[in-house]
Each structure stands twice: as structure tokens, then as C-alpha cells.
Amino acid sequence: MEKQNKEMEKQGKSDTDNGSTITVTVKFSGRSLPVEISDESTVKDLKSLLQPLTNVLPRGQKLIFKGKVLVDEMTLKSSEVLNGAKIMLMATQGLHQGDGPIRKEAFTLPSMRMPEATRPKRDVPQAPILKSQLERWKATGVIALSECNLKALPDEVLTCGPSARVLDLSHNLIQHIPAGINSLSSLQKLILNGNEIMDNSLSWEGLASLKSLMVLSLNQNNIATLPPEIGALTSLRQLYVAHNKLTCLPSEIGLLTDLEVLKVNNNRIHTIPESIGGCASLIEVDFSSNLLVELPETIDKLKDLKALYLKNNGLKSLPSSIFKLCTELSILDLHGTEITMDVLRQLEGWENFDERRRSKHQKQLEFRVISSAKFDEGADKS
């Protein structure tokens, strides 16, 4: 019995050392976020857990409990935060990532839309396709149907067949793109911005057969996943999927060896696949306003990369060889990240990169593209 008591005492001590799991409720932007965490965890640990839930960087979070601001280095237990505690989160302006705090409406329609006054009205009847219009499409190869209050792809569009080179369906109310789009076999540019397209309503099998497609723009929709079929678009030069609901990119993205521009900013992407290194032709990449905490080392395989936008992410460092191997890189936006200038200066190749970006900046000043304000790399000075 004495031995058993000692074992129980030992076990109890161990449990005390590891801390016990508690559930706290964090109030933020009109929502209640339940979080399970050890009471021996620090306030900083809690902030890290809140980052993907709120899109607010830890350094932009102010946690208030019983009228007092919680200190990062203190544990929850020492801060008297017990099971069932309610904590208020206040966000510092400018330190959001992933397009700001998550709102209820973010899960219905994209917030980045046309101004209400210029958006097509749902009760406005769809204009019929005239014979002359169809003949013009076939003659020019350009099908321009932006802002036409369309709820579906007109059947007449598919009759254009191989003569169609450009299809612009932006800013309509379209929810479904059928597999029949593969009849536009010579299509080079497809613009679907500002519709109501979701994962299951877009026929990727049909899109994947468009072997001549060079530009695909899906900005401002409700897309949460890019499927493996994206890798079949081997002629793609520009891919835009900004302001959607993406959480990751498929590994097949690396099959797009001719891709030059990739813009997936303002999503909820938390990881970039290693295969991104296969996109050897990339010149401009925009990962801004996502939930990234690191980049794959294979980024340094992008030898032609000139512009990399990373603002409003949870990044604290960059791949170690990015400056050494990405010898064309001259634009690097790190605003709203936790990467400091000290971190950048320690990377091999920093001096050469710094010279390139200063030269680039000077040329921009000469052509008056930007203001004459002091150049700011976007990294903290401290």
C-alpha cells in the first residue's frame, strides 16, 4: 500500500509539472473562440494558437483578462487564468494577415467585389445573344461578357469552338462552369473574376483540356481548393486566385514550368509545397495576406524570380539561400511580417540583393512610379 501511495504521489507530481489542460474563451470581433491549452503555457503560446483563428499576428494581439493586459512571458496559471476564463482580444491596426479578421460574411460571398452601384442586379433580365454578336466573337476570337448579369455560361459561347481565344466572364453571378468549355480548344485567356464560383461548380476536367490556355484568372470567388488537374495546364503563364478561400496549394503546381506570374494573395494559405521549385519560369509571386509561417527551401530554385510579395504573414525568416541563388530578385515586400533587418543581413547574398533592390528603387524614382519617401524593405528595424 505504501508503495502504491508513493507511485500515486509521483504521478500526481508529474501531472503538476506538465500542467493541466484548461479551456478558455477568447472574445474577438463579435465571436467567442474556445481554446484548449495547458495552464503552464505562456500567454505568448496562447497568442500563437490564436493566430490562425483570428488572422492577427501575435505581436498585434493584446489579451485582456479581468481588466489587465496579460504579459507574454507569464504562464496562464501565474496570470490566474483558470478553466472557463473569458479573455478579450484586441488587435493592433495594421498587424492583420489573411485579409484581416475573419468575419461571418467571409464564409458566404467574397468581400472584394465591385462597388454596389456598379454590380449587376439580380432582377435585371439577361440580354439575349444576338446573331451579329456571335459572328463578331467568331471573327475576332474575343468573347467579352463582363458585367452582363449572367447566371450561367451562355450556350452560344460554346458554339464558337476553336475560334475563341479570349473569354471574359468577370463580375457576373455565374456559379457553374461546365465541362463543355473544353470545346473552346484554342482558348488562351479565361477571366472569371468576381463571380460566385465554388470548388464543386467548376469543371476542372474541362479546364484541364485547354492546352493553349496561358492566362487563368479566378480572383474574388469562393474557391477553397485547387485540384491536381491544375498541373495539366502546362502552357499557363499567369495564374490569379486572389481573394478566395484557399488553405493550401496542390503539389501539382510544380508541373507548371512555364508559369511566370502567380498571385494567390488574400487567402488562408498556411503552407507552400516543396514542388513550387519546379515553377522555374516564375518572375513574380504574391503570397501576401495569408497564414504562412515559413517558406520551403525550394524557393531558391526560382532563378528568374524578380518580385516576391510576402506582406501580412506570420513569417519570421526566409530560406537561407534565397539571396544567394535567386540572383534576379530585386523586389521583396515583408511589411507586416516578423522578419527583422538583422535576420536579412545574416543571409548569404544579402549585399548583392541590397544593391539590386536599391538600383531598382532608384529607377522607379527616376520614372516617378513611386514617391520619393525613404525606401522601406518592410522588415522591423529592431
UniProtKB/TrEMBL annotation:
GO terms for biological process: defense response; intracellular signal transduction; response to other organism. InterPro entries: Leu-rich_rpt, Leu-rich_rpt_typical-subtyp, LRR_dom_sf, LRR_domain-containing, LRR_R13L4/SHOC2-like, Ubiquitin-like_dom, Ubiquitin-like_domsf. The keyword Repeat applies. Keywords: Leucine-rich repeat, Repeat. SMART domains: LRR_BAC, LRR_TYP, UBQ. SUPFAM superfamilies: L domain-like, Ubiquitin-like. The keyword Chloroplast does not apply. This is LRR repeats and ubiquitin-like domain-containing protein At2g30105. It comes from Nicotiana tabacum (Common tobacco).
